[in-house]
Specification:
0% of the residues lie in helices and 50% in strands. Strand 5 and strand 6 form a beta hairpin.
Length: 115
């Protein structure tokens, strides 16, 4: 059983920044490629960034050059630095592993970009 806890969200003005964290705990016996997802109201959950065990990254075109994903394997924590936030980034953000059946989803962290 693995638990995912996302944190760091909040209300921010357009152009602002936030740093999200995702802590994984439980029966984790090896590192996994990880992804950050988001789900806006009325929309499907989408993958916005992923990072391999080795640290290679890729991003959705909508967030490229604004978001940066990173990880601390020793702490089984994944981060998402979000800069130059836009109203359309408003969503609940989640993390999960990539390439395998997803773990049970956490509660996510709400990001609201509004003036």
């Amino acid at each position: 059983q693995v638990q995912l806890v996302e944190s760091g969200g909040g209300l921010v003005q357009p152009g602002g920044s936030l740093r999200l964290s995702c802590a994984a705990s439980g029966s984790i016996f090896r590192p996994y490629d990880m992804g950050w997802y988001r789900q806006a109201p009325g929309k499907q959950r989408e993958l916005v960034a992923r990072i391999t065990v080795g640290g290679s990254t890729n991003y959705a075109s909508s967030v490229k050059s604004r978001f940066t994903i990173s990880r601390d394997n020793a702490k089984t924590t994944v981060y998402l630095q979000m800069n130059s936030l836009k109203a359309e980034d408003t969503a609940v953000y989640y993390c999960n592993r990539e390439g395998f059946t997803p773990w049970s989803w956490g509660q996510g962290t709400q990001v609201t970009v509004s003036s």
